[in-house]
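Reopening: VNX1 protein still failing for me.
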Amino acid sequence: DVPKVRDCRGDSDGPRRGSLCERHCAAINNVHGDLGELGCHLHRPRVPAAASTPSCCQQHSEEVCESCVLKTTLTAENAVEANKLSNNYKFGFKKWKSHVTARPWEDRSEIVKELYSDLNVIRGSAGSTLTCGNVLYLLLFGWWLSLLYVLVAAVMFLSVMGAPYGRLCWELAGYFLWPFGKVIQKVEVPKSHQVCEAGVGESSALLGGPTPRRWLGSGYWHHTSAAVWLCLGYPLLLLAHGLVCVSAWLLIVLIPVAKLSARAAARVLRLPPQRLRVQRLRRAELPLEGEVILCCYRAANPYYYKYAVDGINVFAVNLLPLVLVTLVLGYVDSSNHLTGSAVKFTLALLSIMPLSYYIGMAIASISAQSNFAVGAVVNATFGSITELTFYISALIKGSREGNRCYAEVVKSALTGTLVGCVLFVPGLCMVIGGIRHQEQRFNSRSAGVSSALLFLSVGGVFAPTLFSKVYGKLVCGECHNVTQNPLGHYLCHNCHFDLMDNNGTLYYSHVQPLVYTVSILLPAAYLIGLCFTLKTHTHIYDIHISDCHMPGHHHSAVVHWSRWRALLILLLSTLCMSACADLATEHISPILTNSTISQYFIGVTVLAMVPELPEIVNGIQFALQNNLSLSIEIGNCIAVQVCMLQIPILVLFTIFYPTNFTLVFSDLHVYASMFSVVLMNYIFMDGKCDYFQGTVLVMVYFILLAVYFFAPSPSGC
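Support: Ran it again with your exact input. Result attached.
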């Protein structure tokens, strides 16, 4: 469910009339024929630019074929998705999320359809049931669940009145020990049969053999038996199935087991024993008659990472309880009796990941269903809420405690986000995408726009730092004469440029006005970039709403979240994000003071990259589908957002709430950022890449991490 980058083949109405390259590429594609599964313009796998452009350029010059790689045409399924993609490009934000509308069921692959199918479908040939996933079910759940059914059956038999349910539990014990290749069927009992004779040999061409023995009793006896079952047997089994359901759901690949257990608790255990039949399927007994309640063949499916609940990925759903545990544990156990600060800090940091996913989905849903003005307000207000919440919480805590380490950690996190999104995110996408695709091409023109903004933003952010290096006074904490000569060489430690000399004249008269000027110019440059991509050069980001007219094929937009629901989720997620950020900053102090690892390394790695994990996963998915342009855009947009929006907002915050945050970075941050941006632009110059270039970017990133790991902590921390 990701947008595709189209090549120069043109629209469904025919190739565009323009350059010779476009007409030649269209002719080549007409010769080879369309590759669509159903002849559908929308969902057709397209020949990537890496495959079509070389064929085109074999007979034409690079100038003629330049248009083949200078356009990014995004294909949207409907107007809502097109609006979402358009806003993503217009505002340059990182929220590349999955579809905000439901895809038509006919367009889903067979693998995805199987994920959402109910466990009541009989297959003609399902193959062997002896698989690794089924054996794993037996070891994790099957044996003790079957044993529990045997114990409940014994209790029901001892109660005498619950004997019919005892027979049912005995049959279900064998079923849940190995449910694969077996079926639980609902049997229709005629109303005229008030008394069912035991051992009736009713046979069926479907299941074969006699049906299970029916229970003989009056209406009073039946109600008494049901009461015994509801008091002694059903609650215990319901609790066991609930435990199995939750455990299997959290493991994701065992979601079929969760469905099996949930359906058993909701349907099977609530029916009278005479209405149920448990049989082993045989190929000669198909098809079955009557309603099939349960029929399972596989306990595990590795493709369940694609599973979504109401448009939300299953990983985000499973991590949501972690947020509740973090908030309860953090605010109830404030004195650290149950867990320590390290555990609470880790939980708070991990809780940021699902919350950032929900915030991104809410932003995308609201923006896709609204006009340009509303989309702009929502993106500008909540686009950076994840990172800014943590940064502002850390600065407030550092200001209250008078500890400048928090400001240094925030600077490290900003630098780590910049370096990671420039080197690690595109590099990792190149490596993983290059494993499947030998060479990948991307829109060099759009990457050039982002690179120019990145150069400008990095230069503006570090301009006050360079200014302070030139005009600041170097102050050292301790100096030793390495020679006995007073005029000899001195070895100094903990040196820094003092900007507060002469009552802070240099800082307040020169550095601070420069910081404010930069904080105004950077958002202005960002707005100019928006005008470039939104008004004057919209052809660089060409978005098409594809049409597919097939019998029985309907593509009306069915939105997962309405505007009001998305707004409610956005506000709740923001509140939870603020609480988790407060807990993270509250419990990071012992880690900073007691850890032997440099504070630089903690900020650059953990605090910088953990909130960006959902975007890294999105970039990898795009790269695997040969859509490297969007993978690169993710990293560039995050980096530009850090420099042109987050840092000016932090500077604006310090005006109204004085903190220790100043826009003067250490030399290590300056050199790492400058080198990363230069290397990234060098790699992206030719508009194509492979796994080797991605490996270079990733290796450089790890080298910088090693430098931060062995670097001493900032002075004063």
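The longest helix spans residues 501-536. If you still see a failure, please send the error message rather than a screenshot.
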